[in-house]
Amino acid sequence: MKLKKLKFKRSAITVILLLCLSISLFGCNNASSSSDGKTIKLGVLEDRSGDFSLVGIQKYYAAKLAVEEINKNGGLLGKKVEMVAPDTQSDNNRYQEMAKRLILNDHVDAIMGAFSSASREAIRPIMEQNKMLYFYNNQYEGGVASKYTFNTGAIPDHQITPLIKEMIKNFGPKVYTIAADYNFGQISAKWVEKTVKENGGQVVNQEFIPLGVSQFSSTISRIKKAKPDVLVTLLVGQDQSSFYEQWAKSGDKSIPMASTVNMAQAYEHKRFAAPALANMYITATYMEELADKYPSAKTFVDKLQKKFPKNKYVGMEAESEYSGIMLWAKAVKKAKTTKTDAVIKALESGISYNGPAGKVSIDPKTHHTVRNVYLVHTDSQQKLHIDKEFKAVKPDWLSKDMGVDLTKKPEFKQYTPLK
Amino acid sequence: MSILDLFYQFMNDFSFLILSAIGLAIIFGMMKIINLSHGEFIMLGAYMTTLFTKAGMPLILSIFISAIGVGVFGFIIDRLVISHLYGRTLDSVVVTWGISMVLQQGMLIIFGPSLQGVSTPLGSLSIGGSAYSIYRLLLFVISFVVLVLLYVIFMNTKFGLYSRATMQNQEIAQSMGVNTNRVYSLTFSLGAAFAGLTGGLYAPTMTISPSFGTSFLMPSFVTVIVGGANPLIGTSLSGGVLGIVSSILDALWGTFYGRLGLLIVAIIVIRILPLGISGLVEKVLVRKNRV
């Protein structure tokens, strides 16, 4: 009996130790030789495997396309651009390892990448310590004010503000929010709350779901009980996306869903059988279906699909990655050097790039972008409709409400509307 | 929240815990092998079910075939790898962890990061103004059927007799003429088949991706740890207890506290009853027999 007890305990401890090990373990890649000055090196950190690979793979392809096009047009400053892109495997520890490797071993000139906000916050301090120019080309919860960081993706100013305004105007004031329980979900939910109040609405409830939860029956019955006019879903990852199938079966599909994460990134409307994603409204800065309406969007889809026929969808993060690299290339050309301070100065001159999503320009004060935003919805058959275009939406919460001006005062922090 | 909603929530939690733990419990209880690739066996079942159903097979049939398919796969894994590890609990953890990584990344390479799923069949039932998914009610019934099936297999068949003998004392069972290696091998396949069944059953309700199994892993380990070594008594009782705790916390304060409750119960049980609930039940029974 005693022995059995001991054995059981011992094996339980081993399991726990191993789980910890699996989290901290990272693979080992061979480092390439250090920079020889003949090429300009661009580091790219994207998830080609793991939970975020659905979007990471699109971004990786977009980066490859951008670098290839730059080289085809003569490279930068008479040199070829070389892309160094280790797979970060949706693992934040690996992000840190690989960021250090890119900076200290490969001596890259700039780094693009990261999908989740947790990954970005894992590497942003490393970039700042090493004075490395960093582009976060991804939609996120907003608020990063850092001298070395440029954020070319959509933020709440672009997405949540117009989306909630439209939803309250069209469907009514009662809003129910479910969000993933980590920094992205918490901060985005706070943004929703702020915008709802500004538009005279009311948040009837908000619930934060731990990452990795895949069973939603209690959440669904709570939502049905609250009878909201609008259901805002800020769920993240494969497990949490099981919500939609379960909502379609035992929820109330007449309640319109509003989201800033679905469809334009991980193409749920194509992956899930109808009607799981029916009756959903999103604001996106780019998505593949815009190709039906806008020629510049179509060119990008065609180029990417021709080069990477295995790619399944061209989403908004692919466009951000591509436009981010193009903005960086333009700034390098303007600065006539890859020295970080000079490139930052060139970027802060209000540089802009006319790309797949129309004109994207850097807002000097906040290091975010001024871009076009599209309101899109799915009907009851889960078919997509493009409703509205908001032209040149400014990312000015940081500069207006928080008084950030990175051109005058360098900062290294993330502002949030959380108190 | 009404009593009906609470009961529906309990049914959901109970069936999720039982079905996710059952395969793991059989393999751990009978063989003392800690199968960290359990989640990936579930994922395999989900992939097979989805692919078969999309190829035109009826859902019930494809779930059934996936269970058998994963069972066969488990048999192959057992012959190739696990059979060298009988009785080596700690080594089994490392090896099955490796198998889990190979399966997960292999699926990513073959089918990409996600697969279009099939939608949940059977529609929903409306009572008192709220809708309940019939398929989910059915899952609750199936979780009971699985427990009964397990009882029949272990109490009423020759294989069950041999495997209980092997579990009690391998050497004596062997000296009485039981081929314990074969018993182990069949037990592992049976556990894998039940994991495949779980994957198949949940495939229409969840997103199909290589990480499908990860959301089952934590609940299944908690259920097995709380339940202890006996797969039947342990799993059913701990599924009941944990189901009640998590559905009440979930209903009162939300999903996060439901999750928290599961882990706190696991910590308390390990502290007070290191052999789990089934250890307690066995102790009580032994005491009764002595009197």
UniProtKB/TrEMBL annotation, chain A:
The keyword Signal applies. Keywords: Amino-acid transport, Signal, Transport. The keyword Membrane does not apply. SUPFAM superfamilies: Periplasmic binding protein-like I (SSF53822). Residues 1-27 form the signal peptide. Gene3D superfamilies: 3.40.50.2300. PROSITE patterns: PROKAR_LIPOPROTEIN. GO terms for biological process: amino acid transport. Pfam families: Peripla_BP_6. Residues 39-381 form the Leucine-binding protein domain. Belongs to the leucine-binding protein family. This is Urea ABC transporter substrate-binding protein. It comes from Terrilactibacillus tamarindi.
TrEMBL record, chain B:
It is a multi-pass membrane protein. Keywords: Amino-acid transport, Cell membrane, Membrane, Transmembrane, Transmembrane helix, Transport. It holds the Pfam family BPD_transp_2. GO terms for biological process: amino acid transport. The chain crosses the membrane at residues 14-35, 55-77, 89-112, 132-154, 183-202, 260-281. It is found in: Cell membrane. One of its GO terms (molecular function) is transmembrane transporter activity. GO terms for cellular component: plasma membrane. Belongs to the binding-protein-dependent transport system permease family. LivHM subfamily. This is Branched-chain amino acid ABC transporter permease. It comes from Terrilactibacillus tamarindi.
